[in-house]
């Protein structure tokens, strides 16, 4: 459709308005795609196909038709751009697939180290010498959104929230003129477009001028402007804020998508959704490093804020192989630009007590603006950090927002000293309870010698009740402090003994607040075991490790009985974690706490919907066989082959050695095939691999037969069996996996 020609033709037909509803519907159906096309050309492509007055006449005609005939207003109508009725509140939205956060690389070496981890994660998938291509794009500093389109029409827009649950801001997002309410081209039947809403610097400055003229408080920075604009309950306010949007990827989709991230963004752009114009694909990590470093020096030339560059593995199947750790993908990383820095006075150094007894120094600062955020406190990491930089109370110090988020003291401005500054001395006792503190060998943090610190308990209660642990509704930091200070909670199990009679006398508590807290505590009795384990605050046991431990142990009792060797056998659990878990359950006080939790009806068992580790299947077709893939297979991609081999009990590695059991070779197999022949490793093609996988062939058909073993004399048969007290492999496996 020639949008400009259609627009000019409609100008002669919009006045007077149609006399019948049928004629109004026909005219509205013509106006909508024309007004939509003019807006896309202007806001997305930077083209003015008609004059502003002409556009306003067409837009006004459509608006008037829908006002006179409300049934004509469709979800994708351009008139949604001016906003709608104010909302009472934002509804919560659970994302069908979580929106992950990103790991950070703060310099070129960090980015190279991430790439090495990518190569290691793709071991067995890549050809000899192959390097996966990397896609890079600017990291806009705004608010993450997930936009759901059905049959091309925007039906829902949600904020990222905590990655799993966000807020429905659809009415506000419909006012963002850069976003299409109906996708162009041929998008999937249902697709979630993910991206970032942001405010341009020029828009931000103009908005602050308007706010100042109106006597209102100006916004701190463009990011705050974007976040605040999208969280307005009145969409008409959002409509006047001039927000923009860039897509950075696609979430769940019903329909085919390209095989590479860069091609996905091209497809998204063809649908009419803006994507970053500053993006590129590189064949090696060094080119990506140069791209990142170049933009670090050019960030201030842009009309929008960026805080880094996002680098991703371009092939989507490789992304699938790499997977994720906790809440961050292994296949992507954010190259963060040097933090914004400022200089201010260090007024004091305080010490906070963590939930595990760690004593952390905290800088108290003369408030200073750092990158648009007022900073009055900053981390000093640990005592070694302070002494190595000779940071003193009273110093003029350089403060940065590490990763543009967490404030940190970089170091002192030594030339500005006047002799009144006080050198730092690490505390020997806890600032909260006066108990001795010490630093264990090999650690950098000071820690309580004994337990019982109220500040430590407060942090433990706060962590126990946090959203990712037991999620006790109504129990935040202030209430945790109050419960500990009043003596109502002396340890974690005490939470489950609280009554209305205990809580009503407390300051700020009324009947409804008391009931809400007790309801939240009651619900927390029945949380999944992995969340309880995480909530206990065992050192080195985060959310992911907690899930791994529970997958192998059906109860807290089974985990408490596990040995360090058994724990280390779990993928993802190393000696440090294993030692910490064993030590925690060996402590008499902790064991008593577990018993008290049991007495108070807290769930200590793995729930049916929690993941369970699958024990090795000795009867699996490739059980225990190390497989190397080389060359191009006729029908299977490398990732597909790896998944099927591992599902059949095999292990895929990237290099051939004496331990390799089988090499699967395809077309143009290279040095791996030669190495296999040199070492005498059996080599097969894809047909034989498929036969092994579906059971029509066995390893005995493929692998060379072992040398004939000498038969033991009948009299020696008993001697060949292991003594009863040593236990066989079956018994060991039962101990490790029996609970599963």
From TrEMBL:
- Report residues binding Zn(2+): 430, 433, 453
Please tell me which top-level EC class this enzyme sits in. Answer: ligase
Q: Name the Gene Ontology molecular function terms of this record.
A: DNA ligase (NAD+) activity
Q: What is the catalytic activity of this protein?
A: NAD(+) + (deoxyribonucleotide)n-3'-hydroxyl + 5'-phospho-(deoxyribonucleotide)m = (deoxyribonucleotide)n+m + AMP + beta-nicotinamide D-nucleotide
Gene3D superfamilies reported in the protein's UniProt record: 5' to 3' exonuclease, C-terminal subdomain (1.10.150.20), 6.20.10.30, BRCT domain (3.40.50.10190), DNA ligase/mRNA capping enzyme (3.30.470.30), Helix hairpin bin (1.10.287.610), Nucleic acid-binding proteins (2.40.50.140)
User: A Pfam family name for this chain?
Assistant: HHH_5
Where does the secretion signal sit in this chain?
A: none
User: Which segments constitute the BRCT domain?
Assistant: 617-684
Give start-end positions of Acidic residues composition bias: 723-734
Which cofactor(s) are needed, names only? Mg(2+); Mn(2+)
Active site at 139 (n6-amp-lysine intermediate)
By its UniProt entry, which InterPro entries does this protein fall under?
Answer: BRCT_dom, BRCT_dom_sf, DisA/LigA_HHH, DNA_ligase, DNA_ligase_AS, DNA_ligase_CS, DNAligase_adenylation, DNAligase_N
UniProt entry keywords in alphabetical sequence? DNA damage, DNA repair, DNA replication, Ligase, Magnesium, Manganese, Metal-binding, NAD, Zinc
Binding, NAD(+) = 52-56, 101-102, 137, 160, 196, 312, 336
- Stated role: DNA ligase that catalyzes the formation of phosphodiester linkages between 5'-phosphoryl and 3'-hydroxyl groups in double-stranded DNA using NAD as a coenzyme and as the energy source for the reaction. It is essential for DNA replication and repair of damaged DNA.
Q: PANTHER family from the entry? A: CHROMOSOME TRANSMISSION FIDELITY FACTOR 18 (PTHR23389), DNA LIGASE (PTHR23389:SF9)
Q: Which family does it belong to?
A: Belongs to the NAD-dependent DNA ligase family. LigA subfamily.
The name this protein goes by in its record: DNA ligase
Q: What is the lineage of its organism?
A: Bacteria, Pseudomonadati, Rhodothermota, Rhodothermia, Rhodothermales
């Amino acid at each position: 459709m020639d949008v400009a020609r259609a627009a000019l033709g409609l100008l002669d037909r919009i006045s007077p308005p149609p006399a019948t509803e049928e004629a109004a519907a026909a005219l509205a159906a013509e106006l909508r795609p024309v007004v939509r096309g003019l807006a896309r050309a202007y806001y997305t492509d930077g083209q003015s196909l008609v004059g502003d007055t002409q556009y306003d006449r067409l837009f006004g005609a459509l608006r008037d038709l829908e006002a006179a005939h409300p049934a004509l207003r469709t979800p994708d109508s351009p008139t949604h751009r001016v906003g709608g009725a104010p909302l009472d509140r934002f509804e919560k939205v659970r994302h069908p697939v979580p929106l992950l956060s990103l790991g950070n690389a703060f310099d070129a070496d960090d980015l190279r180290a991430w790439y090495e981890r990518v190569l290691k994660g793709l071991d067995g998938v890549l050809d000899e010498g192959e390097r996966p291509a990397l896609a890079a794009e600017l990291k806009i500093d705004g608010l993450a959104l997930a936009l759901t389109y059905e049959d091309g029409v925007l039906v829902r827009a949600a904020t990222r929230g905590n990655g799993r649950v966000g807020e429905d801001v659809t009415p506000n997002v419909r006012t963002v003129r850069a976003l299409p309410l109906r996708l162009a081209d041929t998008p999937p039947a249902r697709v979630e477009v993910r991206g970032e809403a942001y405010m341009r610097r020029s828009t931000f400055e103009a908005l602050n001028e308007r706010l100042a003229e109106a006597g209102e408080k100006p916004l701190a920075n463009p990011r705050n402007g974007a976040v605040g604009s999208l969280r307005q309950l009145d969409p008409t306010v959002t409509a006047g804020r001039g927000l923009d949007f860039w897509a950075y990827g696609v979430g769940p989709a019903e329909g085919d998508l390209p095989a590479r991230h860069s091609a996905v963004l091209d497809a998204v752009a063809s649908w009419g959704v803006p994507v970053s114009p500053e993006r590129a694909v590189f064949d090696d990590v060094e080119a990506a490093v140069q791209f990142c470093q170049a933009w670090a020096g050019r960030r201030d030339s842009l009309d929008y804020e960026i805080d880094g560059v996002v680098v991703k593995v371009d092939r989507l199947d490789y992304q699938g192989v790499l997977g994720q750790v906790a809440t961050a993908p292994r296949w992507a990383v954010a190259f963060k630009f040097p933090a914004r820095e400022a200089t201010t006075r260090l007024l004091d150094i305080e010490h906070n007590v963590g939930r595990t007894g760690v004593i952390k120094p905290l800088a108290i600062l003369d408030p200073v603006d750092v990158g648009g955020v007022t900073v009055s406190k900053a981390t000093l990491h640990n005592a070694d950090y302070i002494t190595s930089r000779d940071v003193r109370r009273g110093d003029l110090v350089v403060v940065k927002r590490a990763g543009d988020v967490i404030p940190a003291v970089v170091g002192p401005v030594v030339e500005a000293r006047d002799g009144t500054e006080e050198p730092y001395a690490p505390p020997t006792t806890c600032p909260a309870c006066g108990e001795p503190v010490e630093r264990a060998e090999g650690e950098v943090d000071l820690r309580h010698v004994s337990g019982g610190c109220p500040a430590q308990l407060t942090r433990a209660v706060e962590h126990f009740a946090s959203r990712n642990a037991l999620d006790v509704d109504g129990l935040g930091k202030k209430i945790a402090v109050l419960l500990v200070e009043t003596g109502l909670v002396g340890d974690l199990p005490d939470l489950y003994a609280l009554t209305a009679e205990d809580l009503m006398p407390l300051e700020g508590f009324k009947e409804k607040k008391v009931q809400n807290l007790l309801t939240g505590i009651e619900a927390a009795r029945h949380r999944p075991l992995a969340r309880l384990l995480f909530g206990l605050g065992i050192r080195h046991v985060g959310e992911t490790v907690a899930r791994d431990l529970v997958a192998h142990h059906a109860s807290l009792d089974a985990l408490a009985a596990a040995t360090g060797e058994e724990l280390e056998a779990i993928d993802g659990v190393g000696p440090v974690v294993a030692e910490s878990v064993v030590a925690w359950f060996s402590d008499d006080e902790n064991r008593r706490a577990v018993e008290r939790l049991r007495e108070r009806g807290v769930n200590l068992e793995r729930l049916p919907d929690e993941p369970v580790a699958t024990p090795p299947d000795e009867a699996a077709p490739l059980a225990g066989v190390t497989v190397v893939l080389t060359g191009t297979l006729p029908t299977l991609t490398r990732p597909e082959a790896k998944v099927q081999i591992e599902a059949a009990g095999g292990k895929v590695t990237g290099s051939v050695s004496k331990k390799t059991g089988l090499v699967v070779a395809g077309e143009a197999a290279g040095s791996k095939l030669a190495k296999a022949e040199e070492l005498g490793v059996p080599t097969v093609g894809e047909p034989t691999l498929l036969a092994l996988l579906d059971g029509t062939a066995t390893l005995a058909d493929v692998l060379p037969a072992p040398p004939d073993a000498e038969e033991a004399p009948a009299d020696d048969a008993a001697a060949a069996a292991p003594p009863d007290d040593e236990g066989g492999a079956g018994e060991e496996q039962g101990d490790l996996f029996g609970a599963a």
